[in-house]
Amino acid sequence: MKLSVNTVFLNHFLLQSVLNPASQQADRINRLFNYFNIAAAAMLLLVTFLVIYICIKLRGKKDDTNDPLQTSGNKKLEAVMIGGPALLLAFFFYQTVTTMNAVSLSVPKDRQPDVIITGHQWWWEVDYPAAHVVTANEVHLPVGKRLLMQMCSADVIHDWWVPELGNKMDLVPNQSNYLWLNINKPGIYTGACSEFCGAQHAWMRIKVIAQNEGDFNKWLAANTKEAIVPTDTLALKGAELFQSKTCASCHHIQGTEATSNIGPDLTHLASRDEILTGLMKNNESNLFKWVNNPQEVKPGAHMPDFNFSKDSVNAIVRYLEELK
Ligand SMILES: [Cu+2]
């Protein structure tokens, strides 16, 4: 288990960079960031040059006994020293305001969000209201469309940040915040909750799967379907246990009596690559570990230990693996 956790962990870190903008919004922010960098580098060079130049040129000579020449009041120099920074400030003020305007436009009254993201301790609920699709943790989004994301929280303040896709947005209880997003190129973009939100904050990772519109629509269509009804006996037993052993009171499986959103939607769990927001690969042995002893896998997670027999866990896992 150690190894699989570590590789997933590394991927999540290595892939995140503000220097690879992949959305229109990230492009704008990145351009502003570059302006600041260029100005700061020029300033550093200028000051360094002046310090060195003055040290060499104006240092005391061997036979100097008098104080150096004292001067004061140089109108031209003062004008440059006040005017220069003032111009720079004005330039950056203008650039910052236009960037903010381009990135965080206000939301027209009748514009419905394309996606509603709800932060939970410690996972993400992902709702596509127009298609009546709800899923969790892996956020599929189409490339080349202007998306409006509504950001909410079910408990405490969380913060959405996927560096390649641009700005952060807080998810605040009893309030909706909005994020505009035009993704430029397909890919997998990772991020993390960026506002400390409790014990497992560090394992509240974000995974955005940006797809061409065709692929995205295929995925969406597959996710509008109800969950598969299992056919083999072990999975059927698992489905029964799922409904009778309180799993159903926290999870949603479309087409069954499980309709709660205290935990992630599991309707198409088996179609996701990872579970527990990136903590583990989604496979039989990891699902077994999780259902068998959630508190050991993700301590503090809001899913209790059940003390199931090994057979019961096997049955449940078989069922979960059928939820394609
Ligand atoms: Cu969080």
Characterization of the model:
The protein folds into 2 domains: 10-56 and 75-214, Immunoglobulin-like (Sandwich); 233-322, Cupredoxins -  blue copper proteins (Immunoglobulin-like). It is an alpha+beta fold and 324 residues long. 39% of the residues lie in helices and 18% in strands. The protein is built from 8 helices and 12 strands. A 5-stranded mixed beta sheet has the order 3-2-1-5-8. A 3-stranded mixed beta sheet has the order 4-10-9. Strands 6-7 form a two-stranded antiparallel sheet. 30% of the residues are buried. The structure holds copper (II) ion.
Give me a quick take on this structure.
The chain is an alpha+beta fold. Helix content is 39%, strand content 18%. It has 2 domains: 10-56 and 75-214, Immunoglobulin-like (Sandwich), CATH 2.60.40.420; 233-322, Immunoglobulin-like.
List the helices and strands and how they pair.
Blueprint: H1 2-14, H2 24-57, H3 75-103, E1 115-120, E2 123-128, E3 133-136, E4 138-142, E5 146-153, E6 158-160, E7 169-171, E8 177-182, E9 187-192, E10 205-211, H4 213-224, H5 233-244, E11 274-275, E12 280-281, H6 284-292, H7 294-297, H8 310-322
Parallel strand pairs: 1-5, 4-10
Antiparallel strand pairs: 1-2, 2-3, 5-8, 6-7, 9-10, 11-12
Helix pairs in contact: 2-3, 5-8, 6-8
The protein binds copper (II) ion.
The site of copper (II) ion (CU) has 7 residues, from loops.
Helix content percent band: 25-40%
Summarize the helix and strand pattern as letters. Answer: HHHEEEEEEEEEEHHEEHHH
List all distinct small molecules, including ions and cofactors, that are bound in this structure.
copper (II) ion
Known CATH architecture of the largest domain: Sandwich
CATH class of the largest domain: Mainly Beta
Tally of DSSP β-strands = 12
Question: Spans of 5+ residues with little confidence (pLDDT < 50)?
Answer: none
CATH T-level topology of the largest domain = Immunoglobulin-like
Mean pLDDT: 91
Side-by-side strand order of the widest sheet: 3-2-1-5-8
Strand content: 15-25%
Number of helices: 8
Termini separation (Å)? 24 Å
Q: Which term fits the overall shape?
A: elongated
Radius of gyration from CA coordinates:
27 Å
Report the CATH superfamily of the largest domain.
Cupredoxins -  blue copper proteins
- In total, the number of domains comes to 2
